Amino acid sequence: MLNRKFLDDKCSGNDPGRVRDIKKCPTEMANIVEPKNEFCEQQNLVNQPEMMLHEEEKNEEQSTPPYFPQPDDDLPAKDEGPMMPLGPWATGRVVYSPINGMTGLRPVVDRYSITRFSPAEWRLHNKSFFDQSKHTINDAKFVEKISRENNMKIYKDTDKIQLDNRDKLSERSSLIHKWKTELERALFEITEEIELLEGEHRRVKQTLSVLTIPESISGEFLEIRTKRMESDLVRDEVDKELIKEVALCSETRNMLNNTCKIIETQLLELKTAKTRMEFDLTDKTDAYEIDKNCVGLSNSSSIILKHPGATRVPTEQSTPDGYNYFTKEALEMGEAVKNKSVEIRSTLNDIYLKIVKDLRNQAIQVDAVLAENISQTEMVFQHLEKELTQCLNQLSDTEKLIEELRGATKGLDDALKVAQSRLSDRLNRRNVESCRDTSQSGLIEEVKIINDNLSLMAKQLKIAEQTQAGLVKSRGDLEREIIVKKKTLFVDRDRGQLLRSYYPSAEALSGH
Questions:
Q1: What's the CA gap between 236 and 228, in Å, rounded?
Q2: Which of 40, 252, 364, 369 has the greatest number of C-beta atoms within 10 Å?
Q3: Cα(271)–Cα(355) distance, rounded to whole angstroms?
Q4: 171-298+320-378 architecture in CATH?
Q5: pTM recorded for the entire structure
């Protein structure tokens, strides 16, 4: 198009300052079009699609249509001599203006047509137009071929990547299933161990409960004997053996309490390990289901959708090494805790044998010396009654203190609700109004102070309640001792032997 416009300007005489002969326009046009043909030849060497139809162009050149350039068109034009601007063979009217002078020639205009180009130029124009169209078609065919080849390669690569990732997902799901199976086995074993250890814990509790019987018998019997008449208040063999029995019961209780604490600690460790493995098993079950569903997805699945943000990598994701280490650590911890529990259970039988043997031997010794030293006792009633009155007064004061602390706690709860409600309402502020101002800081500080005060008051209330429980127990002991000390002087013979008859058997002391 640029060459055609330039040719029109040349032939129409629009080139300022020069006057050209119209007969020279075809030659000049040929010279102008020639570089374009050379450029096309260079493009044929670069562009592959035009090389594909090289043979078709040769066939077309052998039979040149009449509307394409002919061999005679390349001959030099015959010189017809000088021609005047006007006449039968006029080339056009000279364009002249006083300012610009001679500027060129106007085209020949008559009543039939306006002549600008020669037939050779027309044929050359046809050839260049068809060449341009052919080049465009060849480019389109080349683009089509390359596009199809690229599409085939892209689809092939996509299918390969999809299959590879499906295999990786399948391997990952197999790994998850393996760990899931290991966790299920470990959970089954640790659940059995928890049940066995809980049985031992109940056994220890039962032994502690039964141990209160010999403790009560020995303690009550000692208390009864301490209230004998002054003439009979002697430290005989019965007192010594009873004291030994009380000390033995105390040592036994301490041992059982320590054993109970060890079992409770071990149960806590077992349940902690079990909880961790259960959480891990739950996560692995969900992950296994997700990966299994991912393996089953295909291009024809009805549930596939576009998820633009799915390629993000969460910062909390674990690494494969960390993943394996976490599961191995959970399994190893569970195995270690289970082995420790088995070892603890294996030592309980020896503890029970020693406890039962010592208690029964001491009980036999007490019964033997009691049969030889039966005495009568009398209680010091006034002293015990005084102690009981103090205990009751202190218990009443403690109950009043507990009520006051509970009322104060309720008042602080209301103040805490007010502060928290204000903070909650202020969270509804929008945009820039959600400001961290001094009111916000003050309310937060108020909540903190109230919580600290509530914790302090709760601690004081707990201490007061524990004191109350201790006072209640003391009141019961004193009342029991007062009743015991009202017994007759024949308490050693009648009451003492009757109490000793309730001493628990070896089977009961062993927790069965």
A1: 12
A2: 252
A3: 29
A4: Up-down Bundle (1.20)
A5: 0.49
